[in-house]
TrEMBL record:
It holds the Pfam family ABC_tran. This is ABC transporter ATP-binding protein. It comes from Aeoliella straminimaris. One of its GO terms (cellular component) is plasma membrane. Keywords: ATP-binding, Cell membrane, Membrane, Nucleotide-binding, Transport. SUPFAM superfamilies: P-loop containing nucleoside triphosphate hydrolases.
Length: 318
């Protein structure tokens, strides 16, 4: 599903190939936290990454951001292999890290000054005001972080990231510290911006419902060490998203069940063959493929095309 059918999207805008990250353990040995992570993202696509705590989600995201050195493999964005951070990629972390002595306006202007160095002062001011308005902070532009709630601060962080006009947005549990109402509000703020600006986006989340509501595809990571993509799940919901329509969609609970079941399976980590036999008892094709994928985890690389095809089957039921 192309969320923006007006313009042809680059089907391989992001290419992550055989990505590996090893960190030293306390004995100085290199442990491969992430090992053989493969993912291709279409331009404008929103992909959520879910997986158990500590599996390596942030490690993947920070490598894509260019903030964390790659041990092996490659990441290309817009046809260029990355070798560090760049203005084409913006990151929003759980905590927005605003400069406390600067107002909302000044915090956003900080990046805009750098990226639009050749624009006039008036142009830069308009850009900042536009994005503060987009996140619902037009009236709070002169507030300092201490005068703002956590949700407002995160809005500033989002405005700051989007105002840089990145080609890719990387969100690392951006709503993790917010209450559920603010969280829903900000999900819609981001979705509205993404629909307008067509930014390819990777979102890390622990929240299955958030993953389903926000993204076009969900990437499920296996547990670490040696974590990689376990499964990819296509979501059949149209854009712009409508929360009620998503929740009432006939496939919603089936898709949710597929995500929860994957996570539970990772929780228990039953031996792969045994797990496949268990799953084969279910007459649901989706679960059958989950089981087969699980058997491949031990030795063979995941065939992304195969899982994708299965997921398209799920979507075809719409
Ligand atoms: N700089 C580091 N040095 C050594 N080990 C690290 C480092 N950063 C992360 N790790 C380890 O790598 C593993 C993956 O960490 P990461 O933060 O990527 O996981 P995560 O899936 O994002 O976790 P969470 O969902 O809890 O945020 C963890 O075991 C973590 O302890």
């Amino acid at each position: 599903m192309n969320p923006h059918p007006d313009k042809p999207a680059d089907p391989r805008f992001v290419e992550i190939f055989n990505l590996v990250k090893a960190y030293p353990n306390p004995y100085g040995e290199a442990v491969r936290v992430v090992d053989g992570y493969d993912l291709v993202m279409r331009e404008g696509e929103v992909v959520s990454v879910i997986g158990h705590s500590g599996c390596g989600k942030s490690t993947v995201l920070t490598m894509v951001a260019g903030l964390n050195e790659i041990t092996a493999g490659s990441i290309a964005v817009g046809g260029r292999e990355i070798d560090g951070p760049g203005p084409d990629r913006a990151v929003v972390f759980q905590s927005p890290c605003l400069l406390p002595w600067m107002t909302a306006f000044q915090n956003v202007m900080l990046g805009v000054d750098r990226v639009y160095a050749h624009g006039t002062k008036q142009q830069r001011k308009e850009i900042v005001e536009y994005y503060l308005a987009a996140v619902g902070l037009a009236d709070a532009r002169d507030k300092y972080p201490r005068e703002m709630s956590g949700g407002m601060q995160q809005r500033v962080g989002i405005a700051r990231a989007i105002a840089l006009k990145p080609r890719m947005l990387l969100l690392d549990e951006p709503f993790g510290r917010l209450d559920s109402l603010t969280r829903m509000d900000l999900q819609d703020v981001i979705l509205n911006i993404l629909d307008r600006e067509r930014i390819t986006t990777m979102i890390i989340t622990h929240d299955v419902d958030e993953a389903i509501y926000m993204s076009d595809r969900v990437c499920m990571m296996t547990n670490g060490p040696n974590a990689r993509v376990g499964q990819l799940l296509d979501l059949p919901f149209a854009r712009p998203r409508n929360r009620a329509a998503v929740l009432e969609h006939p496939l919603y609970y089936e898709l949710r069940g597929a995500l929860v079941s994957f996570l539970e399976q990772q929780d228990h980590r039953v031996p792969a063959r045994e797990s496949a036999q268990m799953e084969a008892g279910w007459d649901d094709t989706l679960h059958m493929v989950e089981a087969l994928n699980e058997t491949e985890l031990e030795e063979e690389p995941i065939d992304e095309t195969a899982t994708h095809t299965e997921n398209q089957l799920v979507g075809a039921g719409v």
